Amino acid sequence: MDTTPNTWRLRVELDDSPGALARVTIRLADQDCNVLSLSVIPVPGGVIDELVVRAGPGLLPADLVAAVRAEGGRCVGITAADMRDLVDAPTAALRAAGHAMRDPGAVCDALRAVLAADSVVVLPDDAPDHETSAQSNTARLVTKGGLVVLARRGWSPFTQVELARGQALIDLLSDEGVAMPQSTALLTDDGMAVVLRPGRAGDEEAVAELHSRCSMGTLFNRYHSGMRTVPRRWLHRLLSPPRGTTVVAQCADRVVAMGQLIPMSDPHSAEVSLLVEDGWQGRGVGTGLLAALAGAARADGRLELVGWCLPVETGLLRTAARAGLPTAVRREDGLLRVSITTGRQEIAGPGRRESASRQIASS
């Protein structure tokens, strides 16, 4: 089954000449593309036109970029879009602000929506300087309390207008007394203290070491391949998945588990995956990770988490049951598709958990 997205968001720079945009849209129409929305973003020295396009059958992103270039334009960014991208920017910003004020745990998700960012994290006080280095694809915003919020976006550089919106949202939430998300403390079933926090670029070495300590069976259950160590080129994507969330579990200076949340083409679903070091399995760490990821998904409007398991692997089902999350299972392509409802029920089992904050930042 073809799962390639057919709706795309493009940012285009065109010459300041009459009919330039019309020629681009006509060329896209000739390729059986439907322009669903158009907005103009002011930038220094001109504007950028943003189009949300439903592509014709079999049309790839490279074909859309070529169509723009054929009319003398430059595509400065392209990314998969969904129906939520059809809301104009001021409306989206107002909705995001209202959502964050009603649910402080959704602050990072609100910022991610306003900035159209791949990830938004609140940095800890001891974050290294390279985390806040100035790049066009990295937005560094500062709260009135001095916390640093870092947003990243791989598909297109941030514009000054977007950065101003993001800062205005942070200032508004600060004025209204909405707390920024913080890490979550977890007490395992045997009394060990673990911190759940957003993954960040500085965790690459710790995550590589986590994989090296995991058994072949644990890695096979996670990746469904016979890998022994994770390739170095995967580490950044594991920690900063496009439009996704990564949460790590840390005990002292060691990362002992990690979980990922990746949005699917269905705006109500997200794919979830967990990796827990062998010695930490069965102690409530995976349960805490899954609950945190379900909360992040719920704040983003996702009703379902989807996990893929080997037919003989029941760990995800047991973890969801301990987290109080209802599940449904069906077999697809030789794997089990585990559907987890993000709505939380009363937790089964006596697992002891303490939270230093009821919020966790989306990454």
TrEMBL record:
Stored SUPFAM superfamilies: ACT-like (SSF55021), Acyl-CoA N-acyltransferases (Nat) (SSF55729)
Ranges annotated as spanning the membrane: none
One MF annotation (Gene Ontology) recorded for this entry: acyltransferase activity, transferring groups other than amino-acyl groups
Coiled coil stretches, renumbered: none
Residue ranges constituting the N-acetyltransferase domain according to the UniProt record: 194-343
Pfam family, one: Acetyltransf_1
KW Acyltransferase (keyword) present: yes
Keywords in alphabetical order: Acyltransferase, Transferase
Protein name: GNAT superfamily N-acetyltransferase
Native source species: Saccharothrix ecbatanensis
